[in-house]
C-alpha cells in the first residue's frame, strides 16, 4: 500500500505522524512511503533520515495526499479539504465533534476517516490517546516548575522557589486534579524532585489501585470540592488534569476558589483543550504562555505534546504503528475483522458517520 505522511500545517504543530524508524518498518513490510519535504524537521528528523529509511520525499503536498492511506497527527485544515476523494483513507486525530465542517467535507467527498481518539480496546482503554496524555502531563509539570521561579522568561514572576525542600523550607505542595494518564504523569515528574503531591481522584477503584503503586511523595485521596478547598490555600502548584473524552472538561474551579490560593503560585490547566476546568481559564499561546488572575499564574496552553515534538512523535509512532501496519497489510475490512478496536476507530465511511458517539455529538450541534 502507498502511505503518505504530509507536513502538519496547523499553527504551532511541530509533530510528524511517523518517525524514520516507523517508516523503515513499513517499508520492510513491503509498503511504499511518501513523505512531504520537511515533514519531520520540527521533530528533528531530517529528509535524509526518511530517505535512508526507504521513503520517497516529495515537495508537493498533493503527491502525499494521492496515496491510498494518509497518516497525520492533527485534523486536516480547510486548505487541505481539496485533497479529499472517495479512494482516500485518512488516519489521524479527528475530534470531529469540534469541527462539524470537517465531518461534512469528509462525508461529501467519500473519505474513509479513522480517528486515533476512537480506537478503543475491549477494556475501554484508548491506546492512541494515552501516550499524548502522558506527554501532556509531563510537560505540564515541567512548565509549572519553571513558572514557579522568580525568573521564568515570561515577564510574570513566580514565588521564586524550588519544588523540593531546601534548608528550613519544606517541600512545595502540588495539587493535581485527576489521576488519569495526565495526572499520574505530572505527579511522576514533580514527586522525585521532592514535592509533596496530593493527587485528587473521584473513582474509588482508581484510588485503591494507585495507593499501592505511586511514589512515596504522592498521596492519593478522594476528590470532593470540600477537600479541594482545604488544600488550595497552601498549594504552590495546581495542575488541572480531569478530562472526559469527547466532552467539555468538568468545571471544578470557581474564581472564588482560585482567589483562595497564594500570590505567585502556578495553575496549569491541561484540560484547556476540552474547554478548561476553571472559570478563570482561557487558552494561551507559546508566544504568551501565562497570565495572572487573582494573583495566580495561569498557564493554559493547548496541545502541550507539540512542545516536545521529538518525544511526542516517538510515543505516537510506537502506539499507532501496529494499527497502520495492520490496515496496510490487510486492507481496512480484513483489519477490522481481525481487530475490533480499528472498527471503533472508523468515524466516517462511504459518506456516512458510522461511529455512534461521533454521530450523536455532531447531531447535537
Indicate the CATH architecture of the largest domain.
3-Layer(aba) Sandwich
Query: Quick one: how many beta strands?
Result: 15
Domains, number: 2
Strand count, sense and barrel status of the largest sheet are: 8 strands, mixed
Annotated CATH homologous superfamily of the largest domain: NAD(P)-binding Rossmann-like Domain
What is the N-to-C succession of helices and strands? EHEHEHEEHEHEHEHEHEHEEEHHHEEH
Oligomer: single chain
**What is the count of DSSP helices, taking H or I runs of 4+ residues?**
13
Q: What is the CATH first-level class name of the largest domain?
A: Alpha Beta
Coarse shape: globular
Runs in which pLDDT lies below 50 for 5 or more consecutive residues are: none
Helix/strand/pairing class, anyone?
Answer: alpha/beta
Ends: how far apart? 36 Å
Average pLDDT figure:
94
Named CATH topology of the largest domain: Rossmann fold
What is the share of helical residues? 25-40%
Strand order in the largest sheet? 3-2-1-4-5-6-14-15
- Percent of residues in β-strands: 15-25%
Radius of gyration computed on alpha carbons: 22 Å
Concise description?
This protein is of the alpha/beta class. The protein has helices at residues 20-28, 47-52, 61-65, 100-109, 130-147, 181-190, 204-210, 225-231, 255-258, 309-330, 332-338, 340-345, 356-363, and strands spanning 2-5, 32-36, 56-58, 69-71, 89-92, 112-115, 173-177, 196-201, 218-222, 237-240, 266-269, 290-293, 296-299, 346-349, 352-353.
